[in-house]
Amino acid sequence: MSPPLASRQAANQRVTELRRSGITDLFVIPDDTKLRNAISLGVFRSEDAARSHFAALRARGVRDAVLVERERNPRVYLKIQNMPPQLRQRIAELKTLFLGSEVQDCEAAPVR
Protein backbone atom coordinates (compact mmCIF):
# COMPACT_ATOMS: atom_id res chain seq x y z
CA MET A 1 0.00 0.00 0.00
CA SER A 2 1.11 3.48 -0.75
CA PRO A 3 0.38 5.69 2.29
CA PRO A 4 -2.59 8.11 2.23
CA LEU A 5 -2.02 11.15 0.07
CA ALA A 6 -3.28 14.67 0.71
CA SER A 7 -6.02 14.58 -1.92
CA ARG A 8 -7.76 12.40 -4.46
CA GLN A 9 -5.94 14.34 -7.18
CA ALA A 10 -2.55 13.50 -5.63
CA ALA A 11 -3.58 9.85 -5.35
CA ASN A 12 -4.63 9.78 -9.02
CA GLN A 13 -1.28 11.30 -10.03
CA ARG A 14 0.56 8.60 -8.06
CA VAL A 15 -1.60 5.91 -9.72
CA THR A 16 -0.54 7.28 -13.10
CA GLU A 17 3.13 7.09 -12.07
CA LEU A 18 2.74 3.53 -10.81
CA ARG A 19 0.96 2.42 -13.99
CA ARG A 20 3.76 3.95 -16.09
CA SER A 21 6.18 1.70 -14.22
CA GLY A 22 4.07 -1.36 -15.08
CA ILE A 23 2.12 -1.78 -11.85
CA THR A 24 -1.52 -2.38 -12.70
CA ASP A 25 -2.99 -4.18 -9.68
CA LEU A 26 -3.93 -1.09 -7.68
CA PHE A 27 -6.80 1.13 -6.63
CA VAL A 28 -7.34 4.28 -4.61
CA ILE A 29 -9.11 3.70 -1.31
CA PRO A 30 -12.01 6.17 -1.38
CA ASP A 31 -13.85 6.04 1.92
CA ASP A 32 -11.83 4.54 4.74
CA THR A 33 -11.25 7.31 7.28
CA LYS A 34 -7.72 6.19 8.14
CA LEU A 35 -6.64 5.21 4.64
CA ARG A 36 -8.57 7.64 2.44
CA ASN A 37 -6.53 8.37 -0.71
CA ALA A 38 -4.05 5.59 0.01
CA ILE A 39 -3.32 3.28 -2.90
CA SER A 40 -3.88 -0.43 -2.41
CA LEU A 41 -1.27 -2.45 -4.26
CA GLY A 42 -2.90 -5.83 -3.69
CA VAL A 43 -4.81 -7.98 -1.22
CA PHE A 44 -3.25 -11.29 -0.18
CA ARG A 45 -4.37 -14.45 1.58
CA SER A 46 -1.12 -14.87 3.45
CA GLU A 47 1.57 -12.69 4.94
CA ASP A 48 4.19 -14.56 2.89
CA ALA A 49 2.40 -13.67 -0.35
CA ALA A 50 2.16 -10.03 0.73
CA ARG A 51 5.87 -9.92 1.62
CA SER A 52 6.80 -11.48 -1.71
CA HIS A 53 4.77 -8.89 -3.62
CA PHE A 54 6.23 -6.13 -1.43
CA ALA A 55 9.75 -7.27 -2.36
CA ALA A 56 8.79 -7.30 -6.05
CA LEU A 57 7.46 -3.74 -5.75
CA ARG A 58 10.70 -2.64 -4.10
CA ALA A 59 12.67 -4.25 -6.92
CA ARG A 60 10.61 -2.18 -9.38
CA GLY A 61 11.56 1.01 -7.53
CA VAL A 62 8.42 1.58 -5.44
CA ARG A 63 9.89 3.04 -2.26
CA ASP A 64 6.77 4.44 -0.60
CA ALA A 65 4.94 1.10 -0.28
CA VAL A 66 4.19 -0.23 3.19
CA LEU A 67 2.64 -3.47 4.42
CA VAL A 68 -0.68 -2.94 6.19
CA GLU A 69 -2.88 -5.63 7.71
CA ARG A 70 -6.45 -5.42 6.50
CA GLU A 71 -9.19 -4.51 8.91
CA ARG A 72 -10.81 -7.72 10.01
CA ASN A 73 -14.12 -6.19 11.10
CA PRO A 74 -16.49 -5.77 8.18
CA ARG A 75 -18.32 -2.52 7.71
CA VAL A 76 -22.06 -2.55 8.14
CA TYR A 77 -24.29 0.11 6.66
CA LEU A 78 -27.86 0.80 7.69
CA LYS A 79 -29.98 3.21 5.70
CA ILE A 80 -33.21 4.40 7.27
CA GLN A 81 -35.60 6.43 5.17
CA ASN A 82 -38.18 8.82 6.59
CA MET A 83 -36.69 8.58 10.07
CA PRO A 84 -38.75 10.17 12.84
CA PRO A 85 -36.90 12.80 14.93
CA GLN A 86 -37.08 10.62 18.09
CA LEU A 87 -35.27 7.77 16.33
CA ARG A 88 -32.64 10.14 14.94
CA GLN A 89 -31.96 11.40 18.47
CA ARG A 90 -31.78 7.86 19.90
CA ILE A 91 -29.32 6.76 17.20
CA ALA A 92 -27.12 9.77 18.00
CA GLU A 93 -27.13 8.70 21.67
CA LEU A 94 -26.33 5.06 20.83
CA LYS A 95 -23.46 6.02 18.50
CA THR A 96 -21.23 6.66 21.50
CA LEU A 97 -21.50 2.98 22.45
CA PHE A 98 -19.99 1.83 19.14
CA LEU A 99 -16.39 2.97 18.85
CA GLY A 100 -15.54 4.07 15.33
CA SER A 101 -19.13 4.25 14.16
CA GLU A 102 -20.40 7.10 12.01
CA VAL A 103 -23.85 8.52 11.49
CA GLN A 104 -24.36 10.45 8.28
CA ASP A 105 -27.29 11.95 6.46
CA CYS A 106 -27.57 10.71 2.92
CA GLU A 107 -29.70 11.79 0.00
CA ALA A 108 -33.05 10.10 -0.01
CA ALA A 109 -33.36 7.50 -2.72
CA PRO A 110 -36.69 7.15 -4.45
CA VAL A 111 -38.86 4.45 -2.90
CA ARG A 112 -39.72 1.72 -5.41
Strand order, main sheet: write it out.
Answer: 1-2
Strand content: under 5%
Please work out how many helical segments DSSP would assign.
3
Specify the overall morphology: elongated
Q: Level of helix content? A: 25-40%
Mean pLDDT: 85
Stretches where pLDDT falls below 50 for ≥5 residues? Answer: none
Q: If you compute it from the alpha carbons, what radius of gyration comes out, rounded to the nearest whole angstrom?
A: 19 Å
The counted number of beta strands is 2
Taken in chain order, the helices and strands follow as: HEEHH
What profile does the largest beta sheet have?
A: 2 strands, antiparallel
Structural class of the helices, strands and pairings? mainly alpha
Fill in the keyword field for this structure.
single chain, two-stranded antiparallel ribbon, 3 helices
Topology:
Layout: H1 8-20, E1 27-28, E2 39-40, H2 47-59, H3 85-95
Antiparallel strand pairs: 1-2
Task: Explain what this protein looks like in three dimensions.
The protein has 112 residues and is mostly helical. The protein has a domain at 8-59. The chain has helices at 8-20, 47-59, 85-95, and strands at 27-28, 39-40. A two-stranded antiparallel ribbon has the order 1-2. The longest helix is centred in the first third of the chain and has 13 residues, at 8-20. The model has no long low-confidence stretch (mean pLDDT 85).
